[in-house]
Amino acid sequence: METNPRGIPKAPFIENVEDHVTEQEPVEIVLRKFQEAVAKYKFMEVNMLQRKRNLDTKVPEIRKTLEMVQFLQSQAEEDESKEIETLYELNDTLFATAKVKPTGKVNLWLGANVMLEYPVEEAAELLSTKLEAALKTLKNTEEDLEYLRDQITTMEVNTARVYNWDVKQRRLARAKEEATGEE
Amino acid sequence: MRMLEKDEEEGDIQVSWQDQQNINTFSKHNARFQDLEETYEAKKTEKEYLDDLAMELELADEDEPVRYRIGEAFVSLSLEAAQERIAKTQGELDKEIEALKGQMDEAVEKMDELKKVLYARFGNAINLEKD
């Protein structure tokens, strides 16, 4: 089966409704199968949207941290012993003043209650790599979402066409019946 | 906006694989355009705020340090350093806004092309307009 780079299967396109509806697979079954496929795609879409939302908050967070680390870097380059005066958030909406002596080191919160000390340079590098990775995942997720939308549209068109075909068949059959009844 | 409310009476036009692809591409560009528009508006507001801020800082006292937000904390910067940072962010935003505008124009252009093709083929059986 054809898939996209992340292994999402491609929706089949129905060229000719007549070829697709058979004795073994009447319209009802075909339509049910289509509906199942749409449901599966929609489920994947919900997951992907969730992932995108997570990334949408994660990327600015990494950016912010990187910005601060780069600021520390630039300060150290200017003058290695220069103190930085800062207002930091002691608690929600409560700020306190602090004077920070350059140490050349920062602690990065890695998650899961773990914090690690890095030299500023390494921290900047690590954060840049993380940012790049996050942006790449975001791009892939967006691609997957567009792909999923494509597949959903295809399946919806398929459904509409099979349904319309069925309506037409029924109408023809009824017309034929009436014609024979009148004779 | 729903892309395909196919008329019940329309059963005679055969949908080809090419048509299907056109429909999908249209749908894709349409969704993309909406996302872009949202980001574009957000960035534009951000830029406006920054412009206001830059104006405001023109009038600020040169000897007073500016408390500039980096990440979660505020850092005391000289007025000059703060203005430099703002100018840099403004430049970056300008580039982003321009890029977004370009992508939006491209999406609109593609949609217009596809609209012509699809309306020519399906007429009233297809609805590609925003509600």
Automatic annotation (TrEMBL), chain A:
Q: Which domain of life is it from?
A: Eukaryota
* A cellular component annotation (GO) from this entry: prefoldin complex
The record's section on Pfam families has: Prefoldin
> What residue ranges carry the coiled-coil annotation?
124-158
Q: Does the keyword Hydrolase apply?
A: no
The Gene Ontology biological process terms listed for this entry are:
microtubule-based process; protein folding; tubulin complex assembly
Cite the InterPro entries for this sequence: PFD3, Prefoldin, Prefoldin_subunit_alpha
Keywords attached to this Swiss-Prot or TrEMBL record, sorted alphabetically, are: Chaperone, Coiled coil
Q: Which GO terms describe its molecular function?
A: tubulin binding
How does the annotation summarize its subunit structure? Heterohexamer of two PFD-alpha type and four PFD-beta type subunits.
Family membership, please give it: Belongs to the prefoldin subunit alpha family.
Function, in words: Binds specifically to cytosolic chaperonin (c-CPN) and transfers target proteins to it. Binds to nascent polypeptide chain and promotes folding in an environment in which there are many competing pathways for nonnative proteins.
What name does this protein carry?
Prefoldin subunit 3
Lineage, top ranks = Eukaryota, Fungi, Fungi incertae sedis, Mucoromycota, Mortierellomycotina
From TrEMBL, chain B:
InterPro entries noted in UniProt: PFD_beta-like (IPR002777), PFDN4 (IPR016661), Prefoldin (IPR009053)
Coiled-coil residues are 79-117
Q: Which GO terms describe its biological process?
A: protein folding
| A single GO molecular function term of this UniProt record | unfolded protein binding
Gene Ontology cellular-component annotations: cytoplasm; prefoldin complex
| Keyword field | Chaperone, Coiled coil
Query: What this chain does, per the record?
Result: Binds specifically to cytosolic chaperonin (c-CPN) and transfers target proteins to it. Binds to nascent polypeptide chain and promotes folding in an environment in which there are many competing pathways for nonnative proteins.
Q: Which family does it belong to?
A: Belongs to the prefoldin subunit beta family.
Tell me how this protein assembles.
Heterohexamer of two PFD-alpha type and four PFD-beta type subunits.
Write the protein's name.
Prefoldin subunit 4
Upper classification of the source organism reads:
Eukaryota, Fungi, Fungi incertae sedis, Mucoromycota, Mortierellomycotina
